[in-house]
Write a structure and sequence with these properties.
Strand content: 15-25%
Mean pLDDT: 98
CATH topology of the largest domain: Dihydrodipicolinate Reductase, domain 2
Largest sheet: 6 strands, parallel
Number of strands: 16
Number of helices: 12
CATH superfamily of the largest domain: Dihydrodipicolinate Reductase, domain 2
Distance between the termini: 16 Å
CATH class of the largest domain: Alpha Beta
Order of helices and strands: EHEHHEEHEHEHEHEHEEEEEHHEHEEH
Bound molecules: NADP nicotinamide-adenine-dinucleotide phosphate
Strand order of the largest sheet: 3-2-1-4-5-6
Length: 347
């Protein structure tokens, strides 16, 4: 078993890490960290648990420690669910010694830090050697993208591999859990929609192209089609919905787009990694799907559900679809765990 720690273990993503790592066949939780507000308390006293599954007995008595490399003991991998500003300072300190699998955006766009979705661009893990050499670290940092970017990019990948994309417009309807435990006040979101999420549109526009880019001689050249995102917070607890419009350079058939998505499989499926969904993209044919409440838990929350796939009637060579992805599983904790499973298998 590989001993693992969770940084920011009391928050929304930290709790998902605990849920997904409890009973994991290869990883065992041995250390939990949080802020100084929580350090020194038993986990069950420090965390306000919000997941339906209930707090696992195995973590209740673990003492939460300060988020400092000297405090986590004998671990090989740390999963980071820290706020970005804390991650920027703390993750490099951990990477001197440990593998850091991070959700935070702090290090995602650094030239020598792999930003990875295992089904999309596992080859970016080659940047690890460059990172260790550049920085003189024994460990390293690998990151996963922003929660709405992950779901979008998984659906674009098989299309991009087979056809030329001209531009993508995406309009999101994002769950409140995406803003963290203390994120959106109930008075702001109940019976309401907030048409702005700070930094989210920029992340979707840059990370998507970076993930679909090419790694050559240690440098990533981003994909060059246009991505325009409009991001909105809605009154849903878990599960991001995205309405996607995609324009192709050339004529192509709806059936071919459908087939490309339905047949898509990546390295995690080939390697049969523990957290890999059987199908990264699940296509629904009903007019009223996908919906967050019904589809966010598809394949343990790791499958992205696509529906309403259709030709656009107003514009040539264009298609539209709606997707739902679980923001704290496929979009966060599950994504980091899949990255760590891939690293554990191939590196
Ligand atoms: P959250 O619910 O606010 O949890 C934050 C965690 O970090 C808590 O455990 C908190 O501990 C700890 N923390 C806060 N300040 C700290 C400090 N100064 N030093 C050490 N620990 C500190 O946030 P979240 O939604 O889980 O998000 C965590 C990270 O994942 C963020 O970078 C976020 O952008 C990213 N992310 C989130 C989602 C999502 O859907 N929620 C998706 C993708 C990525 P205390 O309990 O002690 O305060």
């Amino acid at each position: 078993m590989v001993n693992v720690g969770i940084l920011g273990a009391t928050g929304m993503v930290g709790q998902r890490f605990i849920e997904l790592l409890t009973d994991h066949p290869d990883f065992e939780i041995t250390s939990l960290t949080a802020s100084q507000r929580s350090a020194g308390k038993k986990y069950e006293d420090a965390a306000t648990w919000y997941l339906d599954s209930g707090m696992p007995d195995s973590v209740k008595d673990i003492e939460v420690v300060d988020t400092d490399p000297s405090q986590v003991g004998d671990v090989d991998i740390v999963f980071s669910a820290l706020p970005t500003e804390t991650a920027a300072i703390v993750e490099p300190k951990f990477a001197k010694k440990y593998i850091v699998a991070s959700n935070a955006s702090a290090m995602r766009m650094e030239d020598d830090v792999p930003l990875v979705i295992p089904e999309v661009n596992p080859e970016y893990l080659d940047l690890v050697d460059i990172q260790k050499k550049n920085r003189g670290w024994d460990g390293f940092i690998v990151t996963n993208p922003n929660c709405s970017t992950i779901a979008l990019t998984i659906t674009l990948k098989p299309i991009y591999d087979q056809f030329d994309i001209k531009r993508v417009y995406v309009s999101t309807m994002q769950a409140v859990s995406g803003a963290g435990y203390n994120g959106v006040p109930s008075m702001a979101i109940v019976d309401n929609l907030v048409p702005f999420i700070g930094g989210e549109e920029e992340k979707m526009e840059t990370e998507t192209l970076h993930l679909l880019g090419e790694l050559e001689e240690g440098n990533v050249t981003p994909a060059s089609f246009g991505v325009s995102a409009s991001c909105h917070r809605v009154s849903v607890v878990d599960g991001h919905t995205e309405a996607v419009f995609i324009e192709m350079e050339d004529q192509c058939d709806l059936d071919d787009i459908h087939k490309a998505m339905a047949d898509f499989r990546g390295l995690p499926q080939k390697l049969n990694l523990n957290s890999a969904p059987e199908k990264p993209i699940i296509i629904r044919s009903e007019d009223n799907r996908p919906q967050p409440r019904m589809d966010r838990n598809a394949d343990g929350g790791m499958g992205v559900t696509v529906g309403r796939l259709r030709k656009d009637v107003a514009f040539e060579n264009s298609f539209r679809y709606v997707l739902v992805g679980h923001n704290t599983i496929r979009g966060a904790a599950g994504a980091s765990i899949l990255n760590a499973e891939l690293i554990n298998e191939i590196m």
